[in-house]
Amino acid sequence: MNAPLGVSSMVRGLPIYTEDGDRMTSVIAYVYKNHSLAFVGTKSGKLKKIRVDGTTKNTLEYEIVQVVDTGPILRDMAFSMDHEHLYIMSEKQLTRVPVESCSQYETCSECLGSGDPHCGWCVLHNTCTRKERCERSSEPRRFASEMKQCVRLTVHPNNISVSQYNVLLVLETYNVPELSAGVNCTFEDLSEMDGLVVGSQIQCISPAAKEVPQIITENGDHHIVQLQLKSKETGMTFASTSFVFYNCSVHNSCLSCVESPYRCHWCKYRHVCTHDPSTCSFQEGRVKLPEDCPQLLQAEKILVPVEVIKPITLKAKNLPQPQSGQRGYECILNIQGNEQRVPALRFNSSSVQCQNTSYSYEGMEINSLPVELTVVWNGNFNIDNPAQNKVHLYKCGAMRDSCGLCLKADPDFECGWCEGQNQCTLKQHCPAQDSQWLELSSTKGKCTNPKITDINPVTGPREGGTKVTIRGENLGLEFRDIASHVKVAGVECKPLVEGYIPAEQIVCEMGEAKPSQHAGFVEICVAECKPEFMARSSQLYYFMTLTLSDLKPKRGPVSGGTQVTITGNNLNAGSNVIVTFGRQPCLFYRRSTKHIVCNTTASDEGFEKVKVSVRVDKAKIHQELQYEYVEDPTILRIEPEWSIFSGNTPIAVWGTHLDLIQNPQIRAKHGGKEHVNNCEVQNSTEMTCQAPALAVDPSHQSELAERPEEFGFILDNVQSLLILNKTNFTYYPNPIFEVFNPSGILELKPGSPIILKGKNLIPPVAGGNAKLNYTVLVGEKPCVVTVSDVQLLCESPNLIGRHKVMARVGGMEFSPGMVYISPDSPLSLPAIVSIAVAGGLLIIFIVAVLIAYKRKSRESDLTLKRLQMQMDNLESRVALECKEAFAELQTDIHELTSDLDGAGIPFLDYRTYTMRVLFPGIEDHPVLRDLEVPGYRQERVEKGLKLFAQLINNKVFLLSFIRTLESQRSFSMRDRGNVASLIMTVLQSKLEYATDVLKQLLADLIDKNLESKNHPKLLLRRTESVAEKMLTNWFTFLLYKFLKECAGEPLFSLFCAIKQQMEKGPIDSITGEARYSLSEDKLIRQQIDYKTLVLSCVNPDNVNSSEIPVKILNCDTITQVKEKILDAIFKNVPCSHRPKAADMDLEWRQASGARMILQDEDITTKIENDWKRLNTLAHYQVPDGSVVALVSKQVTAYNAVNNSTVSRTSASKYENMIRYTGSPDSLRSRTPMITPDLESGVKMWHLVKNHEHGDQKEGDRGSKMVSEIYLTRLLATKGTLQKFVDDLFETIFSTAHRGSALPLAIKYMFDFLDEQADKHNIHDPHVRHTWKSNCLPLRFWVNMIKNPQFVFDIHKNSITDACLSVVAQTFMDSCSTSEHRLGKDSPSNKLLYAKDIPSYKNWVERYYSDIAKMPAISDQDMNAYLAEQSRMHMNEFNTMSALSEIYSYVGKYSEEILGALDQDDQAGKQKLAYKLEQVITLMSIDS
Questions:
Q1: Cα–Cα distance measured from residue 64 to residue 97, given in angstroms and rounded to the nearest whole number
Q2: Contact indicator for 1001, 987 with CB cutoff of 8 Å
Q3: CA torsion through residues 562, 568, 573, 576, sign
């Protein structure tokens, strides 16, 4: 309240919003369009948005945003200048939050119902936004700001049959703006067509036959699709309504057909449901109403005894008369899974009868079995049975073994007791002459020979009142039969109606016995006391005298809950016990002969002694026993007032009357869960308890202390101590121990202490004198423990050998691993001798190696023939290894290729693929973005670029422009490629014109080449002109389909095969060298010992599904392991959609439950002489079959690197080198090289140390002669991959591919080159062959083979790249016509494929000749094909941006271009120079 100075009355503020849970910490407000908006920050880091319209009642909290993860929002908040953002401060960050987030609402009703006054619905853009951000929002009905303005849509008709096509639908629209730009109607993904707007109505046509959805029976009789209206102006759906396609034919019964909500009719005689009644063959057979359906009527219960021949007559209506050629009626009964068909007779349309037949079912456990009954005609035409009539088959004898049970059966069954056979039967099954058949209705319908089988209880007090239960057979059929003839031990026992079960059970209440009566039998008469109706029990009933002797305990708390045991004799007699203490009942618990146990209730008479009274039935036991109610116990103090989350730490408790409590317990409740632990009473004022655990979720165990919501004691029924209000009991986090090391074994010398590291070992209790009671066992022996906050020091007991270490505290046990205490011993004599012998052998071995090396180097000058022979011998020697490796790879590849068919290959989309080829290495090229110009110039620039586009589309200008640029000395090779790519992106939509220009430029190039007396074979060899790059781009555009349908699969298989084969052996993660390689530059030249492990990886997407086995080498770095695991888990997921290895951590889950993060570098990494070796699985000693998981990167791990500088520089350096993805041309040259870390001088290595550093000089690296062992590996790898290389070459060099013809572009371009050769009188076949090879394989295919990442969404590492380069080189050699001469200096890759290249050359020649023989393609066909290609990829690139990029060259060379245009006659006629000047004027900045 505020009191302004000098005013008597207060100014009172009205609270408009109150919050009691999450406290408010800051507030700021502003007014938006007559709404006051308050923004409130809270203690938990949330921002609440509140709209205030007047008084309290009109306050709305319309949105809550979590701004800060932890901690409160601080007091200061501020708006941005335009009030569109709010700046919010917390302890650690400053956050900018938008004032509104309208875009989160996806429908008009969500948007306008959100309560945010900033938000409205932008109708044709179908988005929730501010009004000022909605285009043309001021026009009527384009922007909705109230719920009633939301667009609504109705359609008439709103359902049609699936067999109706192209039906006219009329859509009535409400609140729709004018649609002059047009509208499309879309039926989800079925079809789309133009809508016709007529006033507020829109007319659409329903889908055509092939687009209508298939409706399958399981999915019901209809399919709902969304009929959507899409504005042509915005391309967005702005309204939709449900539309139903229904399928009557799904219904196979008349009632379900005509009761369906759709226009379905039933054809009675054809037994089909249809939407078109005219298809019914008979007029009278059409049914539209349920009451006209053929159907069975509700019948009385149909009872059929088993094995009795009997007809079943059924009432019905509208039964059809079978027509000529149709079969009659049958009844089908499904008895216990077996179908029984019975002929049936149709009397008339309202009656049918199943013929005389007998039925049966298995077993005597069921006396009546309801059976499904179906009436059919003509084989399988069902008659509806809406009343679900069933036939009840029954057996009289089943479960009715006595006369009483038989006569008790349902009278409708007509069962009776056949005395001669002693069984329950139908009358006709009981032979009349020698048997009497009893039935319920007859005058003699009484069962003889009643029998008593059991009585309970068999003892009771003389005073009576005991309820005795008598069980037996034939104990009467009505209560009156036994109402007055029951005696127990000679005493009248009065039967009770509520306990009587006819024929089976009598319950009666005992009268009082005389003192002379002690025991006796139970005797009954049924109806009359004749011998055949009388029964006597075999058990005796005894009368007992009950006595009490004592009770304990004799006192207890006034709140009750004490369990009292009363002792005495015969206390289990009778049927009902009542114990009272004074006026309070003691709740009966259990009893035996000597004891009654009961629980006291609270006394309302206060503290006093009361009399104990026990009643059994009507007997009151007289014995003076007393029980004292005393004061409830109290709790005065507990110590210590803390524990750990797991509890089980000792607590001492002081109070009063504690010894009254029999089973004291201590409790703590947290998060809705309660934990209880036991206490032990020492005396009336003291007890010791074990602290209860606190219910803290183990996955969210905080590092903070927690207070329980409730803490107290369960002391019998004492309610006041369940929650102690005055205690500050606190729980601290559990101690956490670390494992000794990854192997779990700690090696020690005798006498040295064992150190267990951990945290939270001493709880941070105020006062600081908290101690936990730790026990550490080494083997079975305890050790003396010294505790600090982060470690336990344990004096190891006098043991040697291996022992398990176990630490216990509170309720927890943890084993950090084993200790191995080794005995001290000096080297023995045998050890010294063996070391000396080993040293001698090593020296001999080194000498032998040196001699062998000398001899090898002399032989290296032998001739080609010797080398070839050697290669052939090696090849046959390796053949077996190859076969095995191939078979192994083949199975792996088979797994791979089985997933590749169709969608399995991760092809890039057309745009990404063309961008990667046209502009390699540039991720976000301007041609993919909108043109970026300042607003004030936008109109002029767009006008200028449109004029420039007209010029580019003018052949005279374009040719002049290209020739002028090419004649400039400063126009570099890169510029030529760039201009060619930009021109092709602009002409993507006009490929006929682009082809025409390309042919002209190529013709010019050929002329120029021949004039300059260059060798004709050099044509198109290098990319030195715009034309050559344009040719590459032209093929790139036109061969995409061929790549996708044919060549992509073998190329992808080859890539996968190489990758898999490389990964089978070690790959050095730093130098990129591998054991299996095609390239000698990338071959590991030394023996690496490694083992293949199979790790089980937890599936990150579904933790509960089975683990995925992944093959891994123990010499792999952790990053390599992560990549292999990612490959295995996401084998069908494109590379760009997978998580990155760098973002994941590898977690090793050991059998002990411990989890450990493995990393390439951490504190365990080994460093020797400035060489730091990356961690591998072998370094961590991860065994075969281990369980690992990929988890998101964590900031800290216990084995993270301490030296941040080393980690930062080295790790990032080799990470980058492994993952380098620059332009493809530069990839070869970027062989990773690790330079020493400048700060620490440490060099990284993995499998081989880098030779540049001179540490190892094994083998002369420059020598072309590869020693045999390496050649073997090259050959083995080559043999294994041979099939995949052959498949790829065969696909590329054949004219017919699985039914799809040779791409027209190839035939057309080859014919053009042949025409040019004819024109210039070049008849040398070698020249023509070379032109074609330079034009297609060299220009296009080599690029694709070396860079499969241009076509597929994959990651290519440096070793795969090196192998692909060898394949690409072989491919180029196959296309060459020059002789393949080999010598000792030939590169290894040429030697490797020397035997294959001649056959590849034959393939190429055959391919070129086959193409030449094919019929020529007419210009008309080619233009049609090009037009189709243009249309398919019309809008892939932003033409304006591409034009702007091309124009930058006009700006650079404007004078030269204008000069060239002035000198050209045709350009002069068309005033092209003038037009270009107009463009320059419009585009200039200062205009």
A1: 12
A2: no
A3: negative
Residue 125, pLDDT above cutoff 80? yes
> What is the full DSSP assignment across 324-369?
TT---EEEEEEETTEEEEEEEEEEETTEEEEEEE----S-SS-SEE
H or E element at residue 759: strand 754-759
Q: What are phi and psi of 813, to 5 degrees?
A: -130, 140
Q: For residues 668 and 635, what is the distance between their CA atoms, to the nearest angstrom? A: 16
Q: 1372: Cβ–Cβ under 8 A, 6 or more apart, which residues?
A: 1337, 1338, 1342
CA distance 1256 to 1265: 19
* pLDDT, tens digit (0-9, with 9 covering 90-100), for 3-33: 556 666 777 777 888 877 778 899 999 999 8
CB 392 within 8 A of CB 382: no
As a whole number of angstroms, the distance between CA 140 and CA 1358 comes to: 62
Give the tokens for residue 1354.
């994959």
Cα maximum dimension of the chain:
151
Helix (H) or strand (E) holding 1329: helix 1325-1335
Instruction: Tell me the two tokens of residue 1321.
Output: 């009188």
User: Does residue 370 contact residue 390 with C-beta atoms inside 8 Å?
Assistant: yes
Q: pLDDT by residue (tens digit) across 1169-1202? A: 888 889 999 898 999 989 999 888 866 544 444 4
Tell me the per-residue pLDDT of 321-369, one tens digit each, with 9 for 90 and over.
Answer: 888 888 999 999 999 889 899 999 998 988 999 999 889 998 888 888 9
Residues in the chain: 1487
CA distance linking residue 711 with residue 306, whole number of Å: 69
Bridge partner list, 879: none
d(CA 2, CA 12): 7
- Angle in degrees, CA 351, 356, 358, rounded to 5: 125
Q: What is the pLDDT of residues 1365-1384, one digit of tens each?
A: 999 999 999 998 887 677 76
DSSP state of 1044: I
CA distance 432 to 310: 22
DSSP state of 1354: -
597 DSSP β-pair partners: 565, 590
Query: Angle CA(1412)–CA(1413)–CA(1417) in degrees, nearest 5?
Result: 75
54 against 150, higher pLDDT: 150
Per DSSP, the residues of 1270-1328 read HHHHHHHHHHHHHHHHHHHHHHHT-S-BTTBPPPHHHHHHHHHHHHHHHHTT---HHHH
User: What is the three-class DSSP state of 430?
Assistant: coil
Q: Which of 446, 438, 386, 447 is nearest to 415 (CA)?
A: 438
Cβ contacts of 340-348, under 8 Å, gap ≥ 24:
344/375, 346/319, 346/321, 346/377, 348/319
Determine the Cα–Cα distance for residues 1126 and 1110; give it in Å rounded to an integer: 10
For every residue of 1431-1486, DSSP letters joined together read HHTTTSS-HHHHHHHHHHHHHHTHHHHHHHHHH-HHHHHTTHHHHHHHHHHHH-TT
As a whole-number percent, the residues of the chain with pLDDT over 90 amount to 28
Contacts with 1303 (C-beta within 8 Å, 6 or more apart), sequence order: 1038, 1039, 1041, 1042
Q: What share of residues in the chain are helix, strand, coil (percent, to 5)? A: 30, 30, 40
Residue 691: burial class (beta carbons within 10 Å; 0-12, 13-18, 19+): buried
Contact 413, 303 (CB under 8 A): yes
Report how far apart, in Å, the C-alpha atoms of 1320 and of each of 472, 1008, 1086, 1329 are: 123, 12, 57, 15
1380-1387, long-range: CB < 8 A, 24+ apart: 1382/864, 1382/867, 1382/868, 1383/864, 1384/860, 1384/861, 1384/862, 1384/863, 1384/864, 1384/867, 1384/1264, 1384/1265, 1385/1264, 1386/1264, 1387/1264
**pLDDT of res. 1238:** 52
Using CA atoms of 1410, 1412, 1413, 1418 in order, give the dihedral in degrees to the nearest 10. Answer: 130
Report d(CA 62, CA 102) in Å as an integer.
12
Listed residue (129, 130, 124, 127) closest to 142, CA to CA: 124
